[in-house]
Protein backbone atom coordinates (compact mmCIF):
# COMPACT_ATOMS: atom_id res chain seq x y z
CA UNK A 1 0.00 0.00 0.00
CA UNK A 2 1.26 3.48 -0.80
CA UNK A 3 0.15 6.79 0.60
CA UNK A 4 -0.94 9.22 -2.06
CA UNK A 5 -2.30 12.74 -2.30
CA UNK A 6 -5.22 12.51 -4.75
CA UNK A 7 -5.38 16.26 -5.05
CA UNK A 8 -8.64 17.21 -3.38
CA UNK A 9 -9.10 20.95 -3.88
CA UNK A 10 -8.85 23.50 -1.10
CA UNK A 11 -12.29 24.06 0.40
CA UNK A 12 -13.45 20.54 -0.46
CA UNK A 13 -16.41 19.81 1.83
CA UNK A 14 -15.95 16.71 3.99
CA UNK A 15 -18.72 15.27 6.12
CA UNK A 16 -21.56 12.84 6.52
CA UNK A 17 -25.23 12.45 5.67
CA UNK A 18 -28.47 11.22 7.27
CA UNK A 19 -32.22 11.45 6.65
CA UNK A 20 -34.76 12.63 9.23
CA UNK A 21 -36.94 9.52 9.08
CA UNK A 22 -33.93 7.23 9.59
CA UNK A 23 -32.13 9.12 12.37
CA UNK A 24 -34.41 11.52 14.25
CA UNK A 25 -37.10 9.54 16.04
CA UNK A 26 -39.50 11.75 17.97
CA UNK A 27 -42.14 10.68 15.47
CA UNK A 28 -45.05 12.13 17.46
CA UNK A 29 -43.28 14.93 19.36
CA UNK A 30 -43.19 18.66 18.77
CA UNK A 31 -46.41 18.64 16.77
CA UNK A 32 -45.06 16.32 14.09
CA UNK A 33 -47.59 14.50 11.93
CA UNK A 34 -47.16 11.00 10.45
CA UNK A 35 -45.30 10.48 7.18
CA UNK A 36 -45.34 7.58 4.76
CA UNK A 37 -42.44 6.11 6.74
CA UNK A 38 -44.78 5.51 9.66
CA UNK A 39 -46.64 2.88 7.59
CA UNK A 40 -43.42 1.42 6.13
CA UNK A 41 -42.17 -0.53 9.15
CA UNK A 42 -40.55 -3.07 6.78
CA UNK A 43 -39.04 -0.54 4.42
CA UNK A 44 -39.20 -1.86 0.86
CA UNK A 45 -39.29 -5.48 2.01
CA UNK A 46 -43.01 -5.54 2.78
CA UNK A 47 -46.30 -3.77 1.95
CA UNK A 48 -47.32 -0.67 3.90
CA UNK A 49 -49.70 -0.96 6.84
CA UNK A 50 -52.98 0.92 7.03
CA UNK A 51 -51.85 2.93 10.05
CA UNK A 52 -48.60 3.47 12.00
CA UNK A 53 -47.54 0.38 13.97
CA UNK A 54 -45.68 0.21 17.32
CA UNK A 55 -42.90 -2.03 15.94
CA UNK A 56 -41.62 0.65 13.56
CA UNK A 57 -37.94 1.22 14.41
CA UNK A 58 -38.09 4.65 12.78
CA UNK A 59 -40.33 5.95 15.57
CA UNK A 60 -37.22 6.17 17.76
CA UNK A 61 -34.57 5.57 15.08
CA UNK A 62 -31.20 6.76 16.46
CA UNK A 63 -32.91 9.36 18.68
CA UNK A 64 -31.16 12.30 17.04
CA UNK A 65 -34.21 14.36 17.99
CA UNK A 66 -33.07 14.26 21.63
CA UNK A 67 -29.32 13.68 21.12
CA UNK A 68 -28.43 16.06 18.29
CA UNK A 69 -26.10 18.09 20.54
CA UNK A 70 -24.02 15.00 21.36
CA UNK A 71 -24.08 13.76 17.77
CA UNK A 72 -23.05 17.04 16.19
CA UNK A 73 -20.20 17.28 18.69
CA UNK A 74 -19.01 13.86 17.49
CA UNK A 75 -19.24 15.03 13.87
CA UNK A 76 -17.12 18.02 14.79
CA UNK A 77 -14.59 15.73 16.49
CA UNK A 78 -14.16 13.97 13.15
CA UNK A 79 -13.59 17.36 11.53
CA UNK A 80 -16.78 17.61 9.47
CA UNK A 81 -17.02 20.78 7.43
CA UNK A 82 -20.48 19.84 6.11
CA UNK A 83 -23.42 17.81 7.40
CA UNK A 84 -26.20 16.75 5.08
CA UNK A 85 -29.53 16.23 6.80
CA UNK A 86 -33.16 16.38 5.77
CA UNK A 87 -36.06 18.30 7.22
CA UNK A 88 -39.12 16.17 7.97
CA UNK A 89 -41.93 17.72 5.93
CA UNK A 90 -44.58 16.54 8.42
CA UNK A 91 -42.64 18.17 11.27
CA UNK A 92 -43.20 21.52 9.55
CA UNK A 93 -46.63 20.83 8.01
CA UNK A 94 -48.09 17.86 9.95
CA UNK A 95 -50.69 17.08 7.26
CA UNK A 96 -48.82 18.70 4.39
CA UNK A 97 -51.68 20.90 3.21
CA UNK A 98 -52.07 23.39 6.08
CA UNK A 99 -51.90 27.12 5.50
CA UNK A 100 -49.52 27.77 8.40
CA UNK A 101 -46.42 25.81 9.52
CA UNK A 102 -45.83 24.18 12.90
CA UNK A 103 -43.59 26.51 14.91
CA UNK A 104 -42.32 23.72 17.19
CA UNK A 105 -40.97 21.88 14.18
CA UNK A 106 -39.27 24.98 12.78
CA UNK A 107 -37.72 25.69 16.19
CA UNK A 108 -36.20 22.21 16.35
CA UNK A 109 -34.22 22.77 13.17
CA UNK A 110 -33.22 26.22 14.45
CA UNK A 111 -31.57 24.40 17.36
CA UNK A 112 -29.86 21.93 15.02
CA UNK A 113 -28.47 24.81 12.98
CA UNK A 114 -27.33 26.52 16.18
CA UNK A 115 -25.19 23.48 17.01
CA UNK A 116 -23.78 23.22 13.51
CA UNK A 117 -22.84 26.88 13.55
CA UNK A 118 -21.21 26.49 16.96
CA UNK A 119 -18.90 23.85 15.48
CA UNK A 120 -18.33 25.56 12.13
CA UNK A 121 -20.13 22.85 10.14
CA UNK A 122 -21.87 23.88 6.91
CA UNK A 123 -25.46 22.54 6.63
CA UNK A 124 -26.56 20.82 3.42
CA UNK A 125 -30.33 20.49 3.65
CA UNK A 126 -32.55 18.05 1.76
CA UNK A 127 -36.09 19.43 1.54
CA UNK A 128 -37.84 16.11 0.86
CA UNK A 129 -36.13 12.81 1.68
CA UNK A 130 -38.56 9.90 1.36
CA UNK A 131 -41.01 11.30 3.93
CA UNK A 132 -44.10 12.69 2.22
CA UNK A 133 -46.73 13.51 4.87
CA UNK A 134 -49.04 10.53 5.23
CA UNK A 135 -52.13 12.70 4.79
CA UNK A 136 -50.95 13.70 1.31
CA UNK A 137 -50.49 10.04 0.41
CA UNK A 138 -53.87 8.99 1.74
CA UNK A 139 -55.85 11.96 0.41
CA UNK A 140 -54.14 12.72 -2.91
CA UNK A 141 -52.22 9.50 -3.67
CA UNK A 142 -49.02 11.48 -3.36
CA UNK A 143 -47.35 13.07 -6.35
CA UNK A 144 -49.89 11.70 -8.81
CA UNK A 145 -51.87 14.79 -7.84
CA UNK A 146 -50.89 18.17 -9.25
CA UNK A 147 -52.04 19.73 -5.97
CA UNK A 148 -48.85 18.54 -4.29
CA UNK A 149 -46.84 21.06 -6.31
CA UNK A 150 -48.52 23.92 -4.45
CA UNK A 151 -48.15 22.23 -1.06
CA UNK A 152 -44.45 21.62 -1.71
CA UNK A 153 -43.93 25.21 -2.90
CA UNK A 154 -45.46 26.53 0.33
CA UNK A 155 -43.26 24.19 2.39
CA UNK A 156 -40.10 25.15 0.50
CA UNK A 157 -40.85 28.86 0.79
CA UNK A 158 -41.24 28.53 4.56
CA UNK A 159 -37.86 26.82 4.80
CA UNK A 160 -36.10 29.39 2.63
CA UNK A 161 -37.64 32.29 4.55
CA UNK A 162 -36.81 30.75 7.93
CA UNK A 163 -33.34 29.38 7.28
CA UNK A 164 -32.21 31.16 4.12
CA UNK A 165 -29.64 33.28 5.94
CA UNK A 166 -28.20 30.19 7.65
CA UNK A 167 -28.21 27.52 4.91
CA UNK A 168 -26.27 27.93 1.69
CA UNK A 169 -26.70 24.47 0.11
CA UNK A 170 -30.11 22.91 -0.59
CA UNK A 171 -31.31 19.73 -2.31
CA UNK A 172 -34.90 19.57 -3.53
CA UNK A 173 -35.69 15.82 -3.55
CA UNK A 174 -33.66 12.81 -2.50
CA UNK A 175 -32.85 10.30 -5.27
CA UNK A 176 -35.67 11.71 -7.39
CA UNK A 177 -35.12 9.11 -10.12
CA UNK A 178 -36.02 6.31 -7.69
CA UNK A 179 -39.68 7.33 -8.15
CA UNK A 180 -39.99 5.01 -11.15
CA UNK A 181 -38.87 2.04 -9.03
CA UNK A 182 -40.15 2.85 -5.51
CA UNK A 183 -43.28 5.00 -6.01
CA UNK A 184 -44.46 4.91 -2.39
CA UNK A 185 -41.13 5.71 -0.75
CA UNK A 186 -40.09 8.25 -3.37
CA UNK A 187 -43.45 9.68 -4.38
CA UNK A 188 -45.92 9.02 -1.56
CA UNK A 189 -48.03 6.96 -3.97
CA UNK A 190 -50.18 4.43 -2.08
CA UNK A 191 -51.57 2.73 -5.19
CA UNK A 192 -49.71 -0.63 -5.32
CA UNK A 193 -47.11 -0.82 -8.09
CA UNK A 194 -48.91 -3.66 -9.85
CA UNK A 195 -52.01 -1.46 -10.21
CA UNK A 196 -50.21 1.80 -10.91
CA UNK A 197 -50.44 2.83 -14.55
CA UNK A 198 -47.47 4.23 -16.47
CA UNK A 199 -49.62 7.27 -17.18
CA UNK A 200 -49.99 8.07 -13.47
CA UNK A 201 -46.39 7.20 -12.62
CA UNK A 202 -44.92 9.46 -15.28
CA UNK A 203 -47.38 12.22 -14.41
CA UNK A 204 -46.11 12.00 -10.82
CA UNK A 205 -42.57 12.26 -12.17
CA UNK A 206 -43.52 15.43 -14.04
CA UNK A 207 -45.14 16.95 -10.95
CA UNK A 208 -42.01 16.33 -8.87
CA UNK A 209 -39.76 17.83 -11.54
CA UNK A 210 -41.95 20.93 -11.76
CA UNK A 211 -42.00 21.23 -7.96
CA UNK A 212 -38.21 20.92 -7.85
CA UNK A 213 -37.77 23.68 -10.41
CA UNK A 214 -40.37 25.81 -8.60
CA UNK A 215 -38.39 25.48 -5.37
CA UNK A 216 -35.26 26.58 -7.24
CA UNK A 217 -37.14 29.64 -8.48
CA UNK A 218 -38.41 30.48 -4.99
CA UNK A 219 -34.94 30.11 -3.49
CA UNK A 220 -33.50 32.60 -5.97
CA UNK A 221 -36.24 35.03 -5.03
CA UNK A 222 -36.01 34.60 -1.25
CA UNK A 223 -32.35 33.73 -0.65
CA UNK A 224 -30.35 34.57 -3.78
CA UNK A 225 -27.04 33.61 -2.17
CA UNK A 226 -28.18 30.00 -1.86
CA UNK A 227 -27.02 27.19 -4.15
CA UNK A 228 -29.71 24.72 -5.17
CA UNK A 229 -28.98 21.19 -6.29
CA UNK A 230 -30.88 18.17 -7.49
CA UNK A 231 -30.11 14.72 -6.07
CA UNK A 232 -30.18 11.52 -8.09
CA UNK A 233 -29.30 7.90 -7.52
CA UNK A 234 -26.25 7.10 -9.66
CA UNK A 235 -26.16 3.66 -11.23
CA UNK A 236 -23.33 3.20 -13.75
CA UNK A 237 -24.38 0.48 -16.18
CA UNK A 238 -22.05 -1.78 -18.15
CA UNK A 239 -22.91 -4.09 -21.08
CA UNK A 240 -22.89 -7.73 -19.98
CA UNK A 241 -21.18 -8.62 -23.26
CA UNK A 242 -19.54 -6.78 -26.20
CA UNK A 243 -22.73 -7.23 -28.21
CA UNK A 244 -24.06 -3.99 -29.73
CA UNK A 245 -27.51 -5.08 -28.56
CA UNK A 246 -26.23 -5.10 -24.97
CA UNK A 247 -24.67 -1.66 -25.48
CA UNK A 248 -28.03 -0.42 -26.72
CA UNK A 249 -29.71 -1.94 -23.64
CA UNK A 250 -27.22 0.03 -21.51
CA UNK A 251 -28.10 3.26 -23.33
CA UNK A 252 -31.81 2.67 -22.73
CA UNK A 253 -31.26 1.93 -19.04
CA UNK A 254 -29.05 5.02 -18.69
CA UNK A 255 -31.72 7.19 -20.26
CA UNK A 256 -34.21 6.13 -17.59
CA UNK A 257 -31.92 7.52 -14.90
CA UNK A 258 -30.29 10.42 -16.72
CA UNK A 259 -33.53 12.08 -17.83
CA UNK A 260 -33.99 13.46 -14.33
CA UNK A 261 -30.59 15.14 -14.39
CA UNK A 262 -31.15 16.31 -17.96
CA UNK A 263 -34.33 18.15 -16.99
CA UNK A 264 -32.77 19.66 -13.86
CA UNK A 265 -29.73 20.96 -15.74
CA UNK A 266 -31.21 21.79 -19.18
CA UNK A 267 -34.72 22.88 -18.26
CA UNK A 268 -36.62 20.69 -20.71
CA UNK A 269 -37.40 17.09 -21.56
CA UNK A 270 -34.91 15.43 -23.95
CA UNK A 271 -36.00 13.87 -27.23
CA UNK A 272 -35.34 10.28 -26.15
CA UNK A 273 -37.77 10.71 -23.24
CA UNK A 274 -40.46 12.20 -25.45
CA UNK A 275 -40.07 9.17 -27.71
CA UNK A 276 -40.57 6.86 -24.72
CA UNK A 277 -43.80 8.65 -23.86
CA UNK A 278 -45.06 8.41 -27.46
CA UNK A 279 -44.28 4.72 -27.76
CA UNK A 280 -46.02 3.94 -24.46
CA UNK A 281 -49.06 5.97 -25.38
CA UNK A 282 -48.54 8.38 -22.49
CA UNK A 283 -49.80 11.95 -22.84
CA UNK A 284 -48.61 14.02 -19.91
CA UNK A 285 -50.55 17.02 -18.65
CA UNK A 286 -47.84 19.67 -19.21
CA UNK A 287 -48.94 23.29 -19.09
CA UNK A 288 -47.16 26.29 -20.56
CA UNK A 289 -46.53 27.42 -16.98
CA UNK A 290 -44.89 24.05 -16.27
CA UNK A 291 -42.54 24.52 -19.21
CA UNK A 292 -41.61 27.97 -17.97
CA UNK A 293 -40.97 26.73 -14.42
CA UNK A 294 -38.73 23.90 -15.65
CA UNK A 295 -36.29 26.46 -17.06
CA UNK A 296 -35.19 27.21 -13.48
CA UNK A 297 -32.17 24.89 -13.59
CA UNK A 298 -30.00 23.84 -10.66
CA UNK A 299 -26.63 25.20 -9.60
CA UNK A 300 -25.11 21.78 -8.96
CA UNK A 301 -25.88 18.06 -9.20
CA UNK A 302 -25.60 15.80 -6.16
CA UNK A 303 -25.94 12.06 -6.13
CA UNK A 304 -25.74 8.84 -4.16
CA UNK A 305 -23.47 6.03 -5.25
CA UNK A 306 -23.48 2.51 -3.85
CA UNK A 307 -23.16 0.11 -6.76
CA UNK A 308 -23.00 -0.40 -10.51
CA UNK A 309 -24.96 -2.91 -12.59
CA UNK A 310 -24.86 -4.60 -15.98
CA UNK A 311 -27.49 -4.73 -18.68
CA UNK A 312 -28.22 -7.13 -21.54
CA UNK A 313 -30.70 -7.58 -24.34
CA UNK A 314 -30.69 -11.36 -23.76
CA UNK A 315 -33.71 -12.16 -21.59
CA UNK A 316 -32.19 -15.51 -20.56
CA UNK A 317 -29.21 -13.70 -19.02
CA UNK A 318 -31.13 -11.02 -17.16
CA UNK A 319 -30.28 -12.13 -13.62
CA UNK A 320 -31.21 -9.12 -11.51
CA UNK A 321 -28.80 -8.42 -8.68
CA UNK A 322 -30.06 -8.86 -5.13
CA UNK A 323 -30.95 -5.64 -3.35
CA UNK A 324 -30.84 -3.45 -6.46
CA UNK A 325 -33.70 -0.98 -5.98
CA UNK A 326 -33.19 0.30 -9.52
CA UNK A 327 -32.99 -3.14 -11.13
CA UNK A 328 -30.02 -4.05 -13.29
CA UNK A 329 -28.20 -7.31 -14.01
CA UNK A 330 -25.69 -8.93 -11.66
CA UNK A 331 -22.05 -8.26 -12.61
CA UNK A 332 -20.11 -11.57 -12.41
CA UNK A 333 -16.77 -9.74 -11.98
CA UNK A 334 -17.66 -7.96 -8.72
CA UNK A 335 -18.03 -8.93 -5.08
CA UNK A 336 -21.10 -7.87 -3.13
CA UNK A 337 -22.08 -6.85 0.39
CA UNK A 338 -24.16 -9.11 2.59
CA UNK A 339 -27.25 -7.41 1.19
CA UNK A 340 -26.25 -8.06 -2.42
CA UNK A 341 -25.02 -4.58 -3.31
CA UNK A 342 -22.09 -5.01 -5.66
CA UNK A 343 -18.92 -3.15 -4.72
CA UNK A 344 -17.36 -1.11 -7.52
CA UNK A 345 -15.15 1.85 -6.50
CA UNK A 346 -14.14 2.55 -10.12
CA UNK A 347 -17.83 3.01 -10.94
CA UNK A 348 -17.80 6.16 -8.83
CA UNK A 349 -15.07 7.70 -11.00
CA UNK A 350 -17.03 6.67 -14.09
CA UNK A 351 -20.23 8.27 -12.74
CA UNK A 352 -18.43 11.50 -11.86
CA UNK A 353 -16.92 11.76 -15.33
CA UNK A 354 -20.18 10.86 -17.07
CA UNK A 355 -22.16 13.46 -15.13
CA UNK A 356 -19.52 16.17 -15.57
CA UNK A 357 -19.18 15.55 -19.30
CA UNK A 358 -22.96 15.51 -19.74
CA UNK A 359 -24.08 18.41 -17.54
CA UNK A 360 -21.02 20.60 -16.86
CA UNK A 361 -22.34 21.39 -13.39
CA UNK A 362 -20.39 21.08 -10.12
CA UNK A 363 -20.95 17.65 -8.56
CA UNK A 364 -21.41 16.62 -4.93
CA UNK A 365 -21.18 13.01 -3.70
CA UNK A 366 -23.78 13.15 -0.92
CA UNK A 367 -24.22 9.43 -0.21
CA UNK A 368 -21.70 6.60 -0.30
CA UNK A 369 -21.09 3.82 2.19
CA UNK A 370 -21.48 0.15 2.99
CA UNK A 371 -24.08 -1.55 5.17
CA UNK A 372 -22.62 -4.26 7.40
CA UNK A 373 -23.34 -6.20 10.60
CA UNK A 374 -20.97 -4.52 13.02
CA UNK A 375 -19.91 -6.10 16.32
CA UNK A 376 -19.20 -3.95 19.36
CA UNK A 377 -16.00 -5.21 21.02
CA UNK A 378 -13.65 -4.04 23.77
CA UNK A 379 -10.23 -2.95 22.55
CA UNK A 380 -7.72 -1.60 25.07
CA UNK A 381 -10.54 -1.03 27.52
CA UNK A 382 -12.66 0.92 25.02
CA UNK A 383 -15.82 -0.30 23.30
CA UNK A 384 -15.52 0.07 19.54
CA UNK A 385 -16.09 -1.69 16.21
CA UNK A 386 -13.09 -3.01 14.26
CA UNK A 387 -14.63 -2.13 10.90
CA UNK A 388 -11.65 -2.47 8.58
CA UNK A 389 -14.07 -3.54 5.84
CA UNK A 390 -15.75 -0.12 6.01
CA UNK A 391 -12.40 1.67 6.01
CA UNK A 392 -11.36 -0.30 2.93
CA UNK A 393 -14.65 0.48 1.15
CA UNK A 394 -14.56 4.20 1.87
CA UNK A 395 -10.83 4.50 1.13
CA UNK A 396 -11.17 2.84 -2.26
CA UNK A 397 -14.14 4.97 -3.25
CA UNK A 398 -12.50 8.19 -2.11
CA UNK A 399 -9.36 7.35 -4.09
CA UNK A 400 -11.61 7.23 -7.17
CA UNK A 401 -13.12 10.60 -6.28
CA UNK A 402 -9.56 11.93 -6.22
CA UNK A 403 -8.93 10.36 -9.62
CA UNK A 404 -12.04 12.10 -10.99
CA UNK A 405 -10.76 15.42 -9.63
CA UNK A 406 -7.49 14.74 -11.44
CA UNK A 407 -9.56 14.03 -14.57
CA UNK A 408 -10.81 17.61 -14.38
CA UNK A 409 -14.19 16.95 -12.76
CA UNK A 410 -15.39 19.72 -10.43
CA UNK A 411 -16.34 17.94 -7.19
CA UNK A 412 -17.67 20.08 -4.33
CA UNK A 413 -17.53 17.55 -1.53
CA UNK A 414 -18.28 14.14 -0.08
CA UNK A 415 -20.69 13.13 2.69
CA UNK A 416 -20.44 9.53 3.89
CA UNK A 417 -23.74 7.69 4.39
CA UNK A 418 -24.86 7.48 7.16
CA UNK A 419 -22.19 8.93 9.35
CA UNK A 420 -23.95 7.55 12.44
CA UNK A 421 -25.87 4.26 12.55
CA UNK A 422 -29.44 4.75 11.32
CA UNK A 423 -32.43 2.64 10.33
CA UNK A 424 -31.98 1.27 6.81
CA UNK A 425 -34.40 2.74 4.26
CA UNK A 426 -34.60 -0.43 2.17
CA UNK A 427 -34.82 -3.07 4.93
CA UNK A 428 -35.86 -1.01 8.03
CA UNK A 429 -33.12 -2.72 10.04
CA UNK A 430 -30.67 -1.26 12.55
CA UNK A 431 -28.35 -4.20 11.93
CA UNK A 432 -27.57 -2.95 8.43
CA UNK A 433 -25.13 -0.38 9.75
CA UNK A 434 -23.40 2.33 7.74
CA UNK A 435 -22.14 4.63 10.45
CA UNK A 436 -18.74 5.72 11.66
CA UNK A 437 -20.46 6.00 15.05
CA UNK A 438 -22.10 2.91 16.58
CA UNK A 439 -25.57 3.35 18.08
CA UNK A 440 -26.51 0.70 20.64
CA UNK A 441 -29.88 -0.30 19.26
CA UNK A 442 -31.02 -3.61 17.85
CA UNK A 443 -33.57 -4.77 15.29
CA UNK A 444 -36.01 -5.65 18.10
CA UNK A 445 -35.81 -2.10 19.46
CA UNK A 446 -33.71 -2.94 22.50
CA UNK A 447 -30.52 -1.13 23.40
CA UNK A 448 -29.25 1.87 25.35
CA UNK A 449 -28.88 4.22 22.34
CA UNK A 450 -25.38 5.00 23.63
CA UNK A 451 -22.83 6.12 21.04
CA UNK A 452 -19.41 4.55 20.42
CA UNK A 453 -16.65 5.57 18.02
CA UNK A 454 -15.84 2.88 15.47
CA UNK A 455 -12.32 2.36 14.13
CA UNK A 456 -13.49 4.13 10.96
CA UNK A 457 -14.23 7.23 13.07
CA UNK A 458 -10.54 7.91 13.67
CA UNK A 459 -9.63 6.87 10.13
CA UNK A 460 -12.09 9.36 8.58
CA UNK A 461 -10.89 12.10 10.93
CA UNK A 462 -7.39 11.60 9.49
CA UNK A 463 -8.72 11.72 5.93
CA UNK A 464 -10.45 15.02 6.63
CA UNK A 465 -7.48 16.48 8.53
CA UNK A 466 -5.16 15.72 5.62
CA UNK A 467 -7.70 16.70 2.94
CA UNK A 468 -7.47 13.18 1.52
CA UNK A 469 -3.67 12.85 1.56
CA UNK A 470 -3.86 9.93 4.04
CA UNK A 471 -5.80 7.75 1.56
CA UNK A 472 -3.94 4.68 0.30
CA UNK A 473 -3.95 2.90 -3.05
Automatic annotation (TrEMBL):
Domain of life: Bacteria
Pfam families: Glyco_hydro_1 (PF00232)
Entry annotated with the keyword Membrane: no
SUPFAM superfamilies associated with the record: (Trans)glycosidases (SSF51445)
InterPro entries noted in UniProt: GH, GH_1_N_CS, Glyco_hydro_1, Glyco_hydro_1_AS
PROSITE patterns referenced in this protein's UniProt entry, alphabetically: GLYCOSYL_HYDROL_F1_1, GLYCOSYL_HYDROL_F1_2
Residues annotated as catalytic: 367 (nucleophile)
GO MF annotation terms: beta-glucosidase activity
Signal sequence range: none
A GO cellular component entry from the record: cytosol
Hydrolase is among the record's keywords: yes
GO biological process: carbohydrate catabolic process
Gene3D superfamilies in the record: Glycosidases
Keywords: Glycosidase, Hydrolase
Family membership: Belongs to the glycosyl hydrolase 1 family.
Protein name: Glycoside hydrolase family 1 protein
